[in-house]
Design brief:
This protein is α+β, with helices and mostly antiparallel strands. The protein has 2 domains: 100 residues, no CATH class; 171 residues, no CATH class. The strands form 2 sheets. A 4-stranded antiparallel β-sheet has the order 1-2-4-3.
Length: 292
């Protein structure tokens, strides 16, 4: 009865059994029954369970299931199987939320989804860091990106003007998506000596995140972190820097591969080597790490 009521409202559709061909053989398509729910229903469930935002959902769709994200589909109410949704890279629009309105999701995927990474929008990050005394949030974010300590993501363009400042037509820093783990790492290493008031604010923010079932590790004050780990802080920071650089290469590879799908890996690596994110690494090194 509940399923019938929801079907009547149009907020979910069961995955239909494929029909048979003329020769009696079943047509191609999924054989496991699945339910699809529309974007409003999926967003409501993710917000209620994880405290997720539409911007986060866009990041998870951009990543895809193989990289800890989600799969989205189109026209699940009428097509069997429904086609997978992908962002159209290189389009004129910077709006990555509007395309979600047409998306459908497997109900099982939404119910079981445990994100590998959480994300915060650039506008929210600027507001968050603007509360730090004496800190110019935008300039600070722009400084952390070339240090490979902060990664800016845009589902349509791959990155923002924070990374590609030479492209004035690229999306703004405010529209970018930033891994929350990177943000917290920077706050742990760079902010915790400011004042006790900042520590209090960070604890309050962490409490809000935990109340929203955001599975993140609360940052430790720098003094306590050094006392418990010693020199591992610097080693972990270098490791994070290297990993962030590899992720930037991988992001650039995906973007250029979609634009020029027929080229060789050598060609892709040489194009990436020309970008600032190469950090003076040669094309051969980039080729080894540009694929996940």
């Amino acid at each position: 009865m509940d399923a019938q009521q929801r079907l009547a409202r149009g907020d979910y559709f069961p995955e239909r059994t494929p029909s048979q061909n003329v020769d009696g053989a079943p047509s191609t398509g999924p054989t496991v029954s699945a339910r699809y729910i529309a974007y409003p229903n999926a967003m409501h469930q993710l917000t209620r369970r994880l405290g997720a935002t539409p911007e986060e959902l866009a990041a998870w769709i951009w990543l895809g299931p193989k990289d800890g994200g989600l799969a989205a589909y189109l026209n699940a109410n009428e097509l069997v199987p429904p086609p997978r949704f992908f962002y159209a890279t290189g389009s004129d629009t910077h709006d990555y939320i509007a395309p979600l309105m047409a998306c459908w999701f497997r109900e099982e995927d939404i119910n079981q989804f445990d994100p590998a990474d959480r994300y915060i929008a650039g506008a929210a990050l600027i507001e968050r860091w603007s509360k730090q005394p004496g800190l110019q949030a935008v300039a600070f974010i722009q400084a952390k990106i070339p240090e490979s300590r902060l990664l800016d993501i845009h589902p349509i363009y791959g990155g923002t003007r924070g990374t590609f400042s030479e492209h004035p037509d690229w999306p703004s820093l405010e529209s970018g998506l930033f891994p929350l783990s990177h943000v917290q790492q920077i706050e742990t290493e760079d902010f915790s000596e400011f004042s006790s008031a900042i520590d209090t604010m960070a604890k309050n923010q962490t409490a809000k995140e935990l109340d929203a079932n955001v599975h993140v590790r609360p940052p430790l004050p720098t003094s306590e972190l050094i006392k418990s780990t010693g020199s591992t802080v610097r080693r972990d920071a270098r490791k994070l820097t290297t990993q962030s650089m590899y992720k930037e290469w991988q992001k650039a590879y995906r973007a250029v591969a979609k634009e020029r799908p027929a080229m060789s890996d050598v060609w892709y690596s040489r194009q990436i080597a020309k970008l600032p994110i190469a950090k003076n690494r040669d094309a051969e090194t980039i080729r080894k790490y540009m694929k996940p």
